[in-house]
Specification:
With 468 residues, the chain is mainly α. It contains 23 helices and no strands. It has a domain of 237 residues.
Length: 468
């Protein structure tokens, strides 16, 4: 109880201090109040005196109560199409776990390429790659599908942290899976739930449409290079004691035998999955909005009985995300419509005056990336820093398209730095296979490699695509 009160005191202190400071010239009292509530909400999302969704809901109430925005505007985030896209995608992830199709896909990959330790890791990464193409819940992908199989395989080789045998297999596998998870978060619009917020910011602040196909095409080349280099780095610098894993193949054979042939619900879900992703990729050809496509997919699963209405109601994490994403989208959008981002950009531009835009972009992007040490979620990082850093960087002359892509992918990749960087991090770390020192060391090395890959290869690739 005392810890909760201390957290509440922190949140309230931040909010009150900002409201007591006179707003700068050119900023209205309503805009300044909105900024105070927004910052207090971000702090609350980090320290969490109550769940993040609850903190954001209180923030939504506060902006209406203190008349920072009208009540209609305060609730407008819940009508945002991207918020509903995330909600629908969470429901699809529910179907993936309920039917067992996700587990089957993972086991098939393990059976095909799981004879060596590195191949075993890649078999689960390939599964995650497929799932990330339409499931934004990193918790569902990791905790519901990938991690149970990875843990079962490590235990077949008697690799457990309890008896100090984690280095046989578990330490390498958990490190590799998490670092690749972060890369996959950056690869797809549906890679993690905050990506739709980034897409919204890009459209509102820079007029750039980061739809599903643009996001994926822009990311795929640097992503594949990172997926090749990062696991190899971990394998070379922190090698597992076990290099061959034939038992993993035997385990997959046995589990697939238990599952039996594809069932009716799995076949329907597979058809819906392929159809939804294909329509997302070809959106410019047929013109159907990506949210409509996702909702049609959910409707199909409901009509065919693959999902029951109770499944949707019971998907509590999806509704939590709906509450806090809708609120954060509203507050960030409303702030973007005030003069505050422009004033901030002008102030920083004065400091960076005389710099060439490549130098300014490089330094600001690095600050943006490593600021994630202070954040426990990608969402908090993005909502607090994306818009101001975008405004500042564009103000010094950097191309908007290049800036958006750099900040977009850096926001995701930076989550690999710590054991609290994003939702699956505490889950992987909590198993005890990887020490904090090892985790942070791998995270720092991977961050340098990812920054080089995505800055150099990415910039060249995006130029070739004509994005900047």
């Amino acid at each position: 109880m005392q810890r909760a009160w201390a957290k509440w005191l922190t949140v309230l202190t931040v909010g009150v201090l900002f409201t007591l400071i006179p707003p700068p010239e050119g900023v209205t009292r309503e805009a300044w109040t909105l900024l105070a509530i927004f910052i207090a909400t971000i702090v609350g999302s980090i320290v969490q005196p109550i769940t993040g969704a609850g903190v954001v809901l209180l923030g939504v109430v506060a902006v209406a109560l203190f008349r920072a925005v009208p009540i209609e505007k305060a609730l407008s985030g819940y009508a945002d199409k991207f918020v509903w896209l995330v909600l629908a995608a969470f429901f699809i992830s529910r179907a993936m776990i309920k039917t067992g199709l996700g587990q089957r896909i993972a086991l098939i990959f393990v059976r095909l390429i799981g004879r060596k330790t590195l191949g075993l890791g890649y078999s689960l990464v390939f599964t995650d790659f497929i799932l990330a193409s339409f499931i934004p819940s990193t918790g569902a992908r990791s905790g519901g599908i990938i991690l149970p199989i990875a843990r079962s395989v490590t235990e077949t080789y008697d690799s457990r942290p309890e008896d100090d045998t984690q280095n046989r297999l578990g330490t390498f596998l958990m490190s590799m899976l998490y670092q690749c998870e972060v890369i996959l978060c950056a690869t797809f619009l549906t890679g993690q739930a905050s990506n739709v917020i980034i897409a919204g910011f890009a459209a509102q602040q820079a007029g750039i449409d980061l739809n599903y196909s643009v996001w994926f095409v822009s990311a795929i080349v640097p992503s594949l290079i990172s997926l090749a280099i990062i696991p190899t780095m971990i394998y070379r610098l922190f090698p597992p004691e076990i290099k061959e894993t034939p038992n993993a193949v035997a385990f997959a054979h046995a589990e697939l035998k238990k599952l039996g042939p594809l069932k009716r619900d799995e076949i329907i879900l597979l058809v819906v999955f392929v159809g939804v992703v294909a329509l997302w990729i070809t959106a410019k050809l047929h013109g159907i909005d990506s949210t409509v496509i996702a909702l049609v997919g959910i409707s199909t699963l409901l009509v065919t009985g693959v999902l029951a209405w109770r499944d949707l109601i019971d998907e509590t994490h999806a509704w939590e995300v709906f509450i806090w994403y809708g609120g954060l989208v509203m507050m960030a959008t409303a702030l973007g419509e005030t003069t505050i981002p422009k004033l901030f950009a002008s102030g920083v531009a004065g400091v960076t005056g005389g710099w060439s835009w490549p130098l300014a972009l490089a330094i600001l992007a690095l600050v943006f990336f490593y600021a994630h040490y202070a954040f426990a979620s990608i969402t908090a990082h993005v909502t607090a820093m994306f818009i101001p850093f975008l405004a500042v960087t564009v103000a010094v002359g950097a191309p908007a398209g290049l800036t958006v892509l750099v900040l977009t992918y850096f926001a995701n990749l930076s989550a690999g730095l710590t054991h609290y960087g994003t939702t699956p991090a505490p889950v992987y770390f909590g198993l005890g296979y990887v020490t904090q020192k090892r985790w942070w060391t791998i995270g720092l090395i991977a961050s340098v490699l990812n920054i080089i890959i995505w800055s150099v290869v990415g910039t060249i690739w995006w130029k070739a695509l004509g994005w900047w």
